[in-house]
Write a structure and sequence with these properties.
The protein has 460 residues and is mostly helical. It folds into three domains: 20-117, Orthogonal Bundle (Fumarase C, Chain B, domain 1); 122-287 and 298-368, Fumarase C, Chain A, domain 2; 379-459, Ribonucleotide Reductase Protein R1, domain 1, CATH 1.10.40.30. Helix content is 60%, strand content 5%. The chain has helices spanning 17-20, 24-27, 29-49, 60-71, 75-88, 91-105, 121-158, 178-197, 213-218, 224-234, 250-279, 303-326, 336-341, 344-362, 369-377, 384-396, 405-413, 420-428, 434-442, 452-455, and strands spanning 163-168, 171-177, 202-203, 238-239, 282-284, 365-367. A two-stranded antiparallel ribbon has the order 1-2. A hairpin with a 2-residue loop joins strand 1 and strand 2 (171-177). The radius of gyration is 31 Å and the shape is elongated. The two termini are 61 Å apart. The model has no long low-confidence stretch (mean pLDDT 92). InterPro entries: Fumarase/histidase_N (IPR024083), Fumarate_lyase_CS (IPR020557), Fumarate_lyase_fam (IPR000362), Fumarate_lyase_N (IPR022761), L-Aspartase-like (IPR008948), PurB_bact (IPR047136), PurB_C (IPR013539). Residues 59-308 form the Fumarate lyase N-terminal domain. One of its GO terms (molecular function) is lyase activity.
Amino acid sequence: MTALPDQPLSPLDGRYRAAVAPLSDYLSEAGLNRARVEVEVEWLITLTDRSLFGTSPLDDDDKASLRALYTDFGAEEIDWLGEKERVTRHDVKAVEYLVRDRLDRLDLGGIAELTHFACTSEDINSTAYALTVQRAVTQVWLPKLRSVIATLETLAVEHRDAAMLSRTHGQPATPSTMGKELAVFAWRLRRVVDQIDGGDFLAKFSGATGTWSAHLAAEPDVDWPGLSRAFIEGLGIGFNELTTQIESHDWQVELYDRVRHVGGILHNLATDVWTYISLGFFAQIPVAGATGSSTMPHKINPIRFENAEANLEIAGGLFGTLAQTLVTSRMQRDLTDSTTQRNIGVAFGHSLLALDNLERGLGEISLSQHVLDADLDANWEVLAEAIQTVVRAEITAGRSQITDPYALLKELTRGRRVGAAELAEFVRGLDIGDDAKQRLIALTPAGYTGLASSLVDVLS
């Protein structure tokens, strides 16, 4: 059998490339290497700005030329690093050699020995990962999540008064409104987004085992922890001062657990909307040219929600593995984190793909109020809760001699359909006050939604 031309193994780089491409600027191997170059360059500039070891601050043109090494990072640098790593067998060392090579090209070879000065690979890596994950989350993933939340909020407001039969345990239950049910998901997601917004993105920059030993050997009179903190915080991320050779990754564990939590809520949303579509509560808007089934022409399948469900499960599994693995490092260092962290982009890619499908899916459904109305009208027995609660109030107020109103309603309604006329006749025969009778007789399943509509305002 003839071998296929070079093809992507992952569907994220093949079938679904367009939906997840923005993440590759940050969470691809090239994105990581660009951030590594950024860290190396900015550390060089920091050291020379302080005139350490007889250097002088670089002028603005030289700094701009140096920073162009990462702002203009592209195919030439990617290829150069690929060739160099095949020799060095060490990705961060290849980056150091790239910076040294470019310093020579820029006639700045006099400061070449300050490249990667007193750094261990994890100083560069932890900083690069903090930068790339922060940027991917804040510039790509969170905006897409917020867009899904905004869509939910819009639908919640639009359908705030759309009475619907609830189903607890899959059985008819006290009515709600579709708007309130969608608002619940928006509210849940908002909470976790706030937690993610308040989270850390941390780096270490303290040498081989987190002690600044080499730094002090080279220059004992410098406040190296203070300088390192200023450097890291100047990049817009947080500084972890107390570490082993590696930054402990706890901030990543926290982030991935929260992102997985978001995925769980979204999975719940996907399965609920899928079920509402199955019940006919939502109609799917046909997409011109689309095919639902290869043999059944009538079908419009809820594929957006099914795709989201599956990708959220994949993402959740990966985020769980990331959190479980990254929390541990043997003694001062092992390399289990190295290959694990290379899958951060894969996890976020499946999550982003799910978000994209949810956003599109929510835009391709239309509420079928007549189906909701028919469902409510077929389930008048859900008013049993209201009746027995009113009877209890009447007993307490001294206007009724009924004993055990719950049992009375249970006998009337449990496991059987009860229509409007039958309920009205039952209420007229109750030993309760006239005002209570009139309220109950006037009640309908569609009108028994309590504060559901106004609860949507909690989102405001």
